[in-house]
């Protein structure tokens, strides 16, 4: 990025910058808008994500999408439009993170619930430790077991879909998932248990 080009356009209004970018597709022009609204976008991200690193990442991701989104949309007020884009990006990330946690919880519940008793309550700190152990143990599974477990639990795929994608027999997929779950349980139970979790 040249040093002089942004200064040549800093006096332009938002609509002028947007229209000029549509014509030239010059990233230097978006760079001017980036500097103009970077703090605003970061503030909105912090409001929703409440995490500095996630917010900084979001700011970069949002402005990367502008490269292709600005020419595609009719933008009457860039600031208002950018606020909406930022808000939607943050809400989508929160929904994705929530869904990911639910998928982890589903495996955790199946691994830790006993056949004749309810799942022991796990507080936030314990849950965090459990997810770390689960992630570590997933990486130790055999490739076939790991892929089957991930596709079944994390991607909500059925036996038939997994079998087709991995070119396996459905019974082999079912066996891989069952063996994978058993190996995960053995692996997790071999690690230090979190406090207050009874056998």
How would you characterize this protein structure?
The chain is 76% helix and 0% strand. It is an all-alpha fold and 199 residues long. It has 2 domains: 4-96, Rna Polymerase Sigma Factor, Chain: A, CATH 1.10.1740; 120-190, Arc Repressor Mutant, subunit A. The protein starts with a helix and ends in a 9-residue tail after the last helix.
SSE sequence, one letter per element: HHHHHHHHH
Structural class: mainly alpha
Shape by Cα distribution: elongated
CATH architecture of the largest domain: Orthogonal Bundle
Q: Mean of the pLDDT scores?
A: 79
- Uncertain residue ranges: 1-6, 113-126, 193-199
Number of domains: 2
- CATH C-level class of the largest domain is Mainly Alpha
Count of β-strands: 0
Helix percentage: over 70%
CATH third-level topology of the largest domain: Rna Polymerase Sigma Factor, Chain: A
In brief:
The chain has 199 residues and is mostly helical. It is built from nine helices and no strands.
Task: Give structural attributes.
single chain; 199 residues; mainly alpha; Rna Polymerase Sigma Factor, Chain: A; Arc Repressor Mutant, subunit A; 76% helix; elongated; disordered C terminus
